[in-house]
Design a protein that fits this description.
Elements: H1 14-27, H2 35-47, H3 52-59, H4 63-72, H5 74-92, H6 94-97, H7 103-114, H8 129-141, H9 147-164, H10 179-186
Length: 189
């Protein structure tokens, strides 16, 4: 990775990283969060479409520490949230700028770094229809699926339960939901 154009950020070489990791590990020292150091480094790395692991290596922290910093430092989280779409758009447009860029590698990076191709349907391998409905409700509340998708999947859970109970007509259904009813349930939180 080339050195940053930002004078506040100096990207270390691999040999410098190895040397620093050994010093930190042997000395029992740990990296403490410093917003004046870590926010510029985070923004530089994430906007350049590099993964979180690159930031962790440069900051001498593990992923658990990174996620802890996101939870406990609102400025750090805000910087990450702002930088992420910039990095995503850079990588998203890369095949247009460089048609020779390997598609399989680009697709894999988009999936791993930005969740492209991620299924919005939660794993419904549960016996209980209540558990399935709770998973679907959580997915809607977290914005992972639309209300229309939710209504369709509730219908699938309903039909499955009806089949288990030997019902032959929709009138005997255990769950009677319409769009308004479902919106009321979701908004009850």
């Amino acid at each position: 990775m080339a050195n940053s154009q930002n004078p506040l950020v100096r990207i270390k070489t691999r040999s410098e990283l190895v040397e620093n990791i050994i010093k930190l590990s042997l000395g029992g020292n740990y990296t403490c969060y410093d917003k004046n150091v870590h926010i510029p480094l985070l923004v530089e790395i994430i906007t350049a479409s590099h993964p979180i692991s690159t930031f962790c290596a440069q900051a001498h922290i593990c992923r658990a520490t990174f996620y802890n910093w996101l939870k406990t430092n609102p400025d750090f989280k805000y910087a990450y949230d702002l930088a992420l779409p910039v990095g995503e758009s850079n990588l998203l447009n890369l095949p247009l700028a460089k048609p020779e860029y390997p598609y399989a590698y680009w697709r894999l990076r988009m999936m791993n770094q930005y969740g492209y191709g991620k299924s919005s349907v939660p794993n419904l391998d549960h016996d209980s229809p209540v558990e399935k409905l709770n998973l679907l409700r959580t997915a809607v509340c977290q914005g992972e699926m639309t209300i229309s998708e939710y209504v369709q999947l509730v219908g699938v859970v309903q039909a499955e339960q009806d089949l288990r109970n030997g019902y032959r007509s929709p009138e005997g259904s255990l769950f009677k939901h319409n769009k308004e009813n479902l919106l009321a349930i979701i908004n009850s939180d």
